[in-house]
Design brief:
The structure is a single chain. By secondary structure, the chain is mainly β. It folds into three domains: about 25-35 and about 165-255, no CATH class; about 45-165, no CATH class; about 345-470, Immunoglobulin-like. It has one helix and 39 strands. The chain has one helix at about 10-15, and strands spanning about 1-5, 25-30, 30-35, 45-50, 70-75, 80-85, 90-95, 110-115, 120-130, 140-145, 160-165, 165-175, 175-185, 210, 225-230, 230-235, 240-245, 250-255, 260-265, 270-280, 280-285, 290-295, 300-310, 315-320, 330-335, 335-340, 345-355, 365-375, 380, 385, 390, 395-400, 405-410, 420, 425-430, 435-440, 445-455, 460-465, 465-470. Strands 20, 21, 23, 24, 25, 30 and 31 form a seven-stranded antiparallel beta sheet that branches. A hairpin with a 5-residue loop joins strand 23 (about 300-310) and strand 24 (about 315-320). It is flat and about 80 Å long. It starts with a strand and ends with a strand. Bound molecules: calcium ion (3 copies). One calcium ion (CA) binds next to loops.
């Protein structure tokens, strides 16, 4: 940490003074059920519940002698008891009235049967559970899907709770209209809970989510249009306070003109593009050529990152992480101070080589595990993108002491996942690199060297040759 020197130009870029007083207002939202549960946020909007063997309730006569599995889920601000019997009906019993007995409420019949990778799955609902005694306007609404093994096998299936809908509406900011939505991501029936610390896992967060269709294409992109609920949001370079009614029926947006406490973020690496989340202003995208940015003081989560540089012919090169981890890096920016984030160039290749033993007459194998890491230890796929297309994959060579090549191979990259907004890539994973296995010729003994070569354009990288021995 050191004293911050934020130039006024940066401040003006991030905090433009309001010129349009109409850039604010109160907006009404309407609860809208999901048409299909298969939407890009399905994973973010679900909770998995496991069988809880300790839970018990008086099992009614018709179910006696059958195996009954009990579950408890944190829903509508309390522990909700669910039960499922191993019989033909496959009904789901839910203690909606909260008296501790799931069998005196209306049971739910399975609606759909489908198969997922764990086997046959059933779907129930929508189920609506009121919040508190008042039975007022607040309620948590969700579907329940079974996940995993059939109840008649050794264990009961896991249950997955998936949100059944979300309040949606439009907001007018300046001359632009944007579609927005709220999500009760902690299933407690409220929509107004700001996320004050986020580790990147929506399924365990105890707060709500907010989405805004910034590019007007009718979809909410997971990366830049969907986020945990924040106190303020940035839209088209302007900052607004965001207030939500508990039942999600209304949001109020007011343009912020001053009063935010500032600090700064600095990276040493060139060409770093970052997507950050902070409860102060929501999602923030930062990219070069700058390496220092003025930002509101507060807690930050590194949501996504990648490297982008142009080479001497002005061709664009990109390098992505193989997988964005579920637990993401978090840090604090203190008022008036600069936080230095270690990320990006220079890159180094880490190799781990293990020599297998010769057994049962089979040929020995040498397996090489290699990882490409940035200065903060963060991982990248070993293959760059040139002009948006995957470039040459990494090469591996095995040499003997005289420099003779024993084996040459190409490192394979699994397919990457891409989400595009028009022509611009919004989210991309570089594809995990599979490890390499060399079948050693039976006659080879002695020392050998492993060399890795990457084709990363303008991104600097370093790999050390390593020596190993086969007896
Ligand atoms: Ca009950
Ligand atoms: Ca909530
Ligand atoms: Ca969109």
């Amino acid at each position: 940490m050191r004293a911050v020197t934020i130039c006024s130009v940066l401040l003006c870029l991030l905090w433009p003074v309001a010129r349009n007083a109409r850039c604010q207002g109160d907006f009404t939202l309407t609860y809208t059920p999901f048409k299909s549960l298969w939407n890009p946020h399905a994973v973010n909007l679900s909770r998995t519940v496991l069988e809880d063997k300790k839970a018990s309730a008086e099992i009614p006569g018709k179910l006696r002698g059958k195996k009954v599995a009990f579950y408890t889920a944190s829903v509508a601000g309390r522990d909700l008891l669910l039960a499922m019997a191993d019989d033909e009906d496959a009904k789901l019993y839910v203690d909606v009235d909260g008296d501790g007995d799931p069998f005196n409420d209306k049971p739910y019949r399975p609606k759909g049967r489908r198969s997922d990778r764990f086997g046959p799955a059933r779907s129930y609902g929508p189920i609506s559970v009121p919040v508190g005694e008042s039975k007022g306007s607040l309620s948590a609404s969700f579907h329940v899907d079974t996940v995993g093994y059939s109840i008649s096998r050794k264990r009961a299936p896991d249950l997955r709770l998936v949100l059944a809908g979300r309040p949606m509406g439009t907001v007018q900011l300046g001359r632009q209209t944007y579609r927005i939505a709220l999500f009760d991501c902690n299933f407690d029936g409220r929509y107004d809970e700001v996320c004050d610390s986020f580790d990147g896992d929506y399924r365990s967060m105890d707060a709500d989510c907010f989405a805004i269709d910034l590019n007007g294409d009718g979809r909410f992109y997971t990366s830049k249009e969907f986020q945990p609920l924040s106190k303020r949001i940035f839209v088209a370079g302007k900052c607004y306070t965001l207030a939500v009614l508990p039942d999600g029926s209304k949001v109020r947006l007011r343009q912020v003109q001053s009063g935010l406490k500032l600090g700064a973020l600095e990276t040493q690496g060139k060409g770093v593009e970052l997507l950050l989340f902070t409860p102060e202003v929501g999602l923030v995208t930062l990219h070069g050529p700058r390496t220092q940015w003025a930002l509101p003081a507060g807690a930050y989560t590194l949501m996504q990152w990648h490297l982008t540089l142009n080479d001497e012919t002005e061709t664009r090169w990109d390098l992505y992480p193989p997988v964005v981890p579920e637990r993401r890096q978090t840090f604090q920016i203190a008022e008036g101070e600069t936080y230095e984030l270690k990320i990006g160039l220079p890159l180094r290749v880490e190799t781990r080589v293990s020599v297998g033993s010769a057994s049962n007459g089979a040929r020995r194998r040498v397996s090489v595990r290699y990882r490409l890491r940035g200065q903060g230890g963060e991982e990248y796929a070993g293959r760059a993108y040139r002009n948006g297309r995957p470039y040459r994959p990494a090469q591996i060579r095995f040499l003997d002491e005289t420099g003779r090549v024993l084996e040459t191979g190409t490192l394979k990259h699994e397919e990457s996942r891409i989400e595009r907004e028009g022509e611009r890539t919004m989210y991309l994973e570089g594809g995990a690199t599979t490890d390499y296995s060399w079948k050693v010729p039976a006659e080879f003994h002695g020392k050998f060297c492993v060399k890795i070569k990457l084709f990363l354009g303008p991104f600097e990288w370093k790999a050390e040759d390593t020596w190993h021995t086969i007896d």
